[in-house]
Design goal:
about 60% helix, 6 helices, five-stranded mixed sheet, single chain
Amino acid sequence: MSNTAANLRHKIDSASDLQGVVRTMKALAASSINQYEQSLSSLGDYYRTVELGLSASFRAVEPAMPMVKASNTQSATDVVGVIVFGSDQGLVGQFNEDVADFTIKTLGNLVAKPQVWAVGERVYSRLADAGLTMKQGFTVPTNVNAIASLVRQIQIDSETHRGNSDTACVYVFHNRPTSGALYEPVSQRLLPLDRQWQHNLTQIPWPTKNLPEILCSNATTVRALIREYIFISLYRACAESLASENSSRLAAMQRAEKNIDELLENLQREFHRLRQSAIDEELSDVLAGYELLTK
C-alpha cells in the first residue's frame, strides 16, 4: 500500500507542476492577445487615412485610372499567389487545420494553379501534404514589432514572383477573431485591384469641408498609397491571425487547467482514502495486539 500511496503522491506532484506551466502559458496568451488587439485598434486609424488618400487621388483622375484593372476573369496561365497565416507552435486546438482546410477548399475553385507562401511551419506542412505548390515558408512573429519586417519580406518575395504581370492575383487566408466564437477562417483577394474597389473608395465622403489637393504627381501618389494599402492589409491579416492563435491557445489552456483541476481532485481523494485505510489498518493492528496482551 505504501508503494501505491507513493505513486499517487508522485502523480499529484507531476500534475501540480503541469498546472503551474499551464497557468503561465494562459497568462502569456492573455497578455499577447491584448497587444495584438491594441495593434489592430491603432491600425484602424492608419488604414482609414490611407483609404481617404486613395479616395482623394481617385476622384482627381476619374473616370480613367490605368493602374486599376476592370477584368476579374482568370485563365490557366495567370499568376496566382496565395499567402496563408498559420502557427509555428502547438497547443492551439484546430487553428492550423481550420485555416488550411478553408484554403484548400477555396483554392479548389480557381482555374490557375496557385503558388503558396505560408507563415508558420505547421500550416506549411499541412498545405504541402495537400499537394499545393509551396514557394516559401516564413516564421511566425513572436511580438507586434516583428510583424512589419515579416510583411516586408512577403511583399518583396511575392512581387519578385509576380514580376510585371497585370493579371497576377494575390489571395490572403488567415483566421480572424470573432465575438461569438474564438475565430473564423477568412480570405481576401488582395490583387488585382478592380474598378469596383476604386469606385467604392471614391464614394467615401471627405471628413471636413476643406477638400484635399494632390501636390505632386498623382500617379506617384497613387502607387505609394496602393503599396501602403497592401502593406496594411497584410499587416492586419497577420495581427488578426496572431490574436486568433493566442485566443485559441488561451481556450486550450483553460480546458487543460480544468482537466488538471479535476485530475488533482481525484488523485487527492484517492490518496486520502488510501492514507485513511492505512491508518485504520494500523489502528486495527494496535487494538488486536492490545486485546491479545490483555488476555
